[in-house]
């Protein structure tokens, strides 16, 4: 497959993945607003103290268990989440498998072609 066709295929895949990924829902009121005076004058510290960051609701953290019980190479039962995986993870896995298959196919094809050329030029014998 020519390189231009591969580049076009890669661009199409990136475009397709860009359309599939959903943007997070962020309200304008949730965004931190910087005072106009602080933007205009550099070096002046803001007069309002920055509120401490609060822990948002995270679907990957267990609600009814201590987090330290779940951090391990072998987490205990009940530490998982239903939000793991999904079709996007399966899509990425499929793309990786297809990519590895294409690489293996290209290597096999190149080795066979080079072997054929070598046998044709040396008359089937090996070595000098």
Structure notes:
With 128 residues, the protein is mainly α. The chain has a domain at 98-122. Helices cover 49% and strands 0% of the residues. The protein is built from four helices and no strands. The chain has helices spanning 3-20, 36-40, 67-70, 87-122. The longest helix is centred in the C-terminal third of the chain and has 36 residues, at 87-122. It is elongated and about 80 Å long. 0% of the residues are buried.
Quick recap:
With 128 residues, the protein is mainly α. The chain has 4 helices and no strands.
Helix fraction by DSSP (H/I, runs of at least 4): 40-55%
Q: Show unreliable segments.
A: none
Q: Report Rg.
A: 28 Å
Query: How many β strands by DSSP?
Result: 0
* Rough outline: elongated
SSE order in H/E notation? Answer: HHHH
Overall mean confidence score, pLDDT: 74
Q: Find the structural class using helix and strand composition.
A: mainly alpha
Counting DSSP H or I runs of 4 or more residues, the number of helices is 4
Q: In percent terms, what proportion of residues is strand?
A: under 5%
Secondary structure layout plus pairing:
Elements lengths: L2 H18 L15 H5 L26 H4 L16 H36 L6
């Amino acid at each position: 497959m020519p390189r231009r066709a591969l580049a076009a295929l890669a661009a199409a895949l990136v475009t397709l993945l860009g359309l599939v990924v959903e943007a997070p829902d962020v309200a304008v009121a949730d965004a931190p607003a910087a005072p106009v005076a602080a933007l205009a004058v550099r070096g002046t510290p803001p007069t309002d103290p920055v509120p401490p960051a609060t822990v948002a609701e995270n679907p990957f953290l267990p609600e009814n268990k201590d987090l330290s019980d779940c951090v391990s190479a072998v987490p205990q039962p009940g530490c998982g989440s239903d939000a793991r995986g999904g079709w996007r993870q399966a899509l990425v896995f499929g793309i990786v498998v297809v990519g590895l298959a294409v690489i293996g196919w290209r290597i096999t094809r190149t080795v066979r072609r080079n072997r054929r050329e070598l046998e044709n030029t040396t008359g089937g014998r090996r070595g000098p």
